[in-house]
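Newbie here. four chains, one complex. Structure please?
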Amino acid sequence: MKAIKMGVSTLSQQAITIAERIQRALDTLTRAERQLAQAILENYPASGLGPLSALAKDAGVSGPTVLRMVQKLGFKGYPDFQTELREELRDKVKNPISKHDTWTEGAPSGHVLNRFTDAVMENIRHSLAQIEPAAFDAACALIADPKRKIFIVGGRISHTIAEYLFLHMQVIRPDVIHVQSTSNTWPHYVLDMKEGDVVVVFDVRRYENNTLKLSELAHAKGAKIILLTDQWRSPVHALSDICFSSRIVVPSAWDSAVMPLLLVESMISAVQDILWTDTRDRMETLEAIFDQTKMFRKFT
Amino acid sequence: MKAIKMGVSTLSQQAITIAERIQRALDTLTRAERQLAQAILENYPASGLGPLSALAKDAGVSGPTVLRMVQKLGFKGYPDFQTELREELRDKVKNPISKHDTWTEGAPSGHVLNRFTDAVMENIRHSLAQIEPAAFDAACALIADPKRKIFIVGGRISHTIAEYLFLHMQVIRPDVIHVQSTSNTWPHYVLDMKEGDVVVVFDVRRYENNTLKLSELAHAKGAKIILLTDQWRSPVHALSDICFSSRIVVPSAWDSAVMPLLLVESMISAVQDILWTDTRDRMETLEAIFDQTKMFRKFT
DNA sequence: CAGCAGATGTACGATTCGTTACAGATACTT
DNA sequence: AAGTATCTGTAACGAATCGTACATCTGCTG
């Protein structure tokens, strides 16, 4: 029968977590402090529960910086900060609230963000399970081959993802061409195709006639066709040498491009690895040009 | 009868939590030590992460007892015990996702696809944890307001994602404008901005001067600014009314746009829900137009 | 009941940790 | 371009913590 002293313990906070407090104060923090804040949130709350010096080293800042930030957040000192972190952890474990069916805390599990993210995660899982690594590697090898020209083709919506691939490939290697199948000019590009060239085609639901025609002509010219499509597969797949299908269903009137984008980014990364020595030179040159145009900001 | 101990005990390093280790050792502990063990397990792991003296007082035992038990469990000292507790906590929060250690079967876990997907999943998890649902809802409400014009602005790479948002918004509601900050024509668009209009700005690493200038002018005109940026946050965030930051680090020389895209798609879905009756009409009209242009295939 | 062994707590010393003061560096202003 | 304000790290100080030695207590055994 120990004196139950709750009542006061309900004051156990304004229901605002320290993570949120950090998040909210981010604007008032300085550079080094933000760097530290990121490190804390990176693996929260574990890193904040260790010694001050360890946290400082992990974040790449110095001890006093840690202290200053902690005080800015309204704590008396580092020990005070740690105490509240532990309290928070204690409460969190105590509430057996169905955790991870919500991705963003503080939103009902039926919130768009949670429903949407659930679907996307499922899509990624399913899509990847169906992809043959050998096919992926083969596609990357084709794209990385400097002797082949690369044509990238997208449709009304998917051309945005196609352009994303194009913009990166353009930096990595020469002879990359972005073809707008929505425009009337695409036949001109087919003129330049020759046997062995590679055509990367994006075609998802509401498959477009232009895209199919372009693919047929390219196929006839002996070009290799790599197709990124959805789970129902565009008619282009009959002509394609390599085909990747992504699940794209989400709780929305439209389809998701997340999985195709993930594939594209993985490809970029893989191709860049293959061509790294060349790519590095091209990137340095590009940097120099950017410097001259003053297009980007120089600091952080 | 405390014979059995070594031999297998080397495996005690991995995959066995400290809680389990305590449970298992419960028999070999003395009365005061068991009392302490219960207190630790009572609210685990929070209580073990505080100072030794606090734990001792909480359990009703004295300092040295804590130390002796901890050493019995095989730790060098109390700090060592705490360090492993923190490691465990770190792994615990990391794991709910990466329980799949390979995503695509048949590829080594070191394959690009697996490494990349791991990183992306982590990004999604971290980013969403930092997003305030209220801010998201507020942003969607702004975009869904038919009385406000919507300007969508992207940079050299991010304009692809910006355009993705634009293409969908264009279907959902009128008065949506896509501004190319890479082009010289953007000042013309600023001319048309008026107080209450909404500017959706995409700005990730290699923050662009044009994007910042455009935002400053828009801000001066009294437009609401919704910013989608990375974890380091574009300088535009100082002007923004609502800011979403996504983790974008992947094993590649470039950054990932998956998380920003996920946010964009969620927004599209949410806005479409708000405006559904209007959207449906617009979509039907659009379908009719498409039919006449014969742009899409009629089947599947 | 006497004696002993293990268990437990108290008090002190050594060490690590958190904190403060100060100086160098950086960015911004006039 | 010089000056100023702010930020940031190094170094020393003081405080709290951990670990150890020792004394006390409890419970078991003969």
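Moderator note: Residues 112-130 of chain A form the longest helix (19 residues). The two ends of chain A are 58 Å apart (CA to CA). Thread marked as resolved.
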